[in-house]
């Protein structure tokens, strides 16, 4: 059972975490390190953090089975994207794709869009490729690619869990309005990220 107070506390803590982070996680390539560096990487940029929390939040809104499926599809496809990045496969502008993921996922939550299961999976899978590709471009220079990959996949899963928890807290009608408001804020942040990526 959730109360407006617990929902408010969760929203404030989430906002504080986002405001305390740099805007982009991909300001350069060749991050050295292993598991800890990989774990910290998705937490080091608001674009990644918001997209991954949004996947969990949208999944919680859509309910079963997507509340379980989307947080599995995203890391799995992210690993595929990382492989493409490691081998330098061509992909449309990655930063624009990541920014667009924040914008679209935020809009899906804000508009309370109940996408068909196949379409929700396709949207999440596509955006996961961009996030994974960005990680993959950094992996070849990492001291421990396996540890780094394990770290960023685990952090991604935890961010999805945060989104699911927020979604479950927002199960009541008042909470749903709060969740949609969060989605609108996330979508607005995505617009800003996209403007920065294309400028």
Strand tally is: 0
Radius of gyration: 16 Å
Give the fraction of residues assigned to helices: over 70%
Strand content: under 5%
Description:
It is a single chain. Helix 4 (66-86) runs antiparallel to helix 7 (145-169) and helix 5 packs antiparallel against helix 6. The chain has helices at 4-19, 35-40, 46-62, 66-86, 94-110, 117-138, 145-169, 173-198. The model is unreliable at 4-31 (pLDDT under 50). With 199 residues, the chain is an all-alpha fold. The protein has one domain (4-198).
Note the main attributes of this structure.
single chain; 199 residues; mainly alpha; 75% helix; 0% strand; HupE_UreJ; transmembrane
Outline the fold blueprint:
Layout: H1 4-19, H2 35-40, H3 46-62, H4 66-86, H5 94-110, H6 117-138, H7 145-169, H8 173-198
């Amino acid at each position: 059972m959730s109360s407006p107070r617990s929902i408010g506390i969760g929203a404030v803590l989430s906002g504080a975490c986002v405001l305390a982070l740099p805007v982009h996680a991909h300001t350069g390539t060749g991050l050295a390190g292993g598991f800890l560096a990989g774990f910290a990487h998705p937490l080091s940029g608001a674009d990644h953090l918001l997209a991954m929390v949004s996947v969990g939040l949208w999944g919680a809104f859509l309910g079963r089975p997507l509340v379980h499926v989307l947080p599995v599809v995203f890391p799995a496809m992210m690993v595929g994207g990382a492989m493409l990045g490691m081998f330098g496969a061509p992909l449309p502008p990655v930063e624009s794709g990541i920014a667009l993921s924040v914008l679209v996922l935020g809009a899906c939550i804000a508009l309370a869009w109940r996408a068909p299961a196949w379409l929700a999976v396709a949207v999440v899978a596509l955006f996961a490729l961009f996030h994974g590709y960005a990680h993959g471009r950094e992996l070849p220079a990492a001291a421990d690619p396996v540890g780094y990959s394990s770290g960023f996949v685990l952090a991604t899963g935890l961010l999805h869990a945060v989104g699911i928890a927020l979604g479950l807290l927002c199960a009541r009608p008042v909470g749903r309005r709060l969740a949609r408001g969060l989605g609108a804020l996330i979508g607005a942040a995505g617009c800003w990220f996209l403007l920065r990526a294309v400028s």
